Prior knowledge:
The protein is of the alpha/beta class. The protein folds into two domains: 2-71, 2-Layer Sandwich (Double Stranded RNA Binding Domain); 80-163, Arc Repressor Mutant, subunit A (Orthogonal Bundle). It is built from five helices and six strands, in the order ββββααβααβα. The protein has helices spanning 49-62, 80-90, 100-110, 119-127, 154-163, and strands at 2-7, 14-18, 23-28, 42-44, 98-99, 140-141. Strands 3-2-1-4 form a four-stranded mixed sheet, with helices on one face. Strands 5-6 form a two-stranded parallel sheet. α3 crosses α4. It starts with a strand and ends in a 17-residue tail after the last helix. The model has no long low-confidence stretch (mean pLDDT 89).
Amino acid sequence: MYHSTTCRSPIGALTLACDGTNLVGLWIEGQKYYKEAMPEAMAESDDCPVCSEVSSWLDGYFAGKRPSVSDLPLAPIGSAFRQEVWNILRDIPYGEVITYGDIAKKLAGKAAGRARMSAQAVGGAVGHNPISVIIPCHRVVGANGSLTGYAGGIWIKARLLELEGVDMTRLFMPKKGTAL
């Protein structure tokens, strides 16, 4: 049985989903792929301890504190490949960005006998991250500094990076693309 609740944030309403023990989803209102990975329906519940813990974490994050991703019980639902990508996302330091290509290189280095990994495949996994904000997919940018590829919306991605104090001078909003 999955439970969900909605909380307010500076970037809009956030839907949290838990399995009673772990957070399995966090979606920004209007986000692409909203609840896509959920294997069954969720019951509205405002008394889930995990969701309360996550709400407190988010309050600290939006207040400019640097709560650790490892402080929360996370269990995103996805394939083994996506899990590998999301684990790399968890290690991106607060206030820093990396590229899709950087993640592809890390994955290729872990895979036996693989010299290369597709940055596009990585982009697909990053875009389907079911725990937005906490698993920081907003910290992944294009090799040229483009803020492309955020299912919650490019403006929200920029806002989260600014909140974290990222130097935005080399980053830019794409003029066209599928993830605007």
